[in-house]
Structure formats: C-alpha cells, structure tokens
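Readers of this paper often ask what the protein records in our data store actually look like. The remainder of this section carries one protein's record, kept here as part of the documentation.

:::
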Amino acid sequence: MRQIKFRAKPHPGYFSPRTNSEKLDVRDGFIFGAPDVRDLDIPNSEKVDNLYSIPTCFVTLNKKGWTVSMPVIEDTIGEFTGLHDKNGKEIYEGDIIRFCKGQKKDKSGNLVDDTEDRVVCYDGGCFNIHDLSLCTGSITVIGNIHKNIK
C-alpha cells in the first residue's frame, strides 16, 4: 500500500524562509504534510458574508516533533504517487518526468533513447502515470510545474 502524503508551496504572507525553514521540513521550496481540515482563526483573513476566507493550510511536523499548521498556496498542492524515479526521488502530482519509451535511430543511424516528457496529474481517480509504473527505472523527475526546469 502506498504512503499518502502531500507537498505544497508555503503561502508567502505567512512564511519566512529565514525562520520557518529552520523549523519545518522544507525541500526545493515545498513543505510536506497533509491538508488541514480544522477551522482555524488565522490573522489577516478576510471576512466575506460573515465567513472568513482563509488560505488552505497544511498540517506538518516541525523539527522538534510539534504539529504546525502552515498556510499554503492551494494550486501548488501535490499528492505523492507512491513511485520513485531512477534516482530514488519521490514523484508527486505536478512533477515533470522524463521517461525512456525505447530506442530509435537518429539522423546518423545511431541508436539513441526515445524519451518523452510528461506532467504528472491526478485525473479520473488515478495518476496519469499508471502505465509507467513498470518502468520506474527509466523515469527521471526533471522539474515541476511550479518552478522553472533547471
């Protein structure tokens, strides 16, 4: 059974990289945890029709083991697929992956890898990489849709 976990970009209005990254699990600009479904009283929320509009939050553990609720940018939430690329990196929804479909001949007649890039997304109750789960040894995470590919 795969591990259910999420990542998201912290909301800039509530996150200070200098102070929060020392306390939270922050990697590549993402924090890791799970969506927070509690009603929260967060400063700077806007009141609309007697309801507070608050950012989506993540529950995560800080480095001392305390539970922390951190506002995140909702569009950056990505679920872990349960798969790893050939380098052992976890593959999340929103990642851009490159995989080898086989080999082909280039213009000189040499055999080269025939690769394809794909964005991992969740659609119709499953991830769009179900057909790739057998070839994880050839998958490489090359970036994600929330930052430029390096």
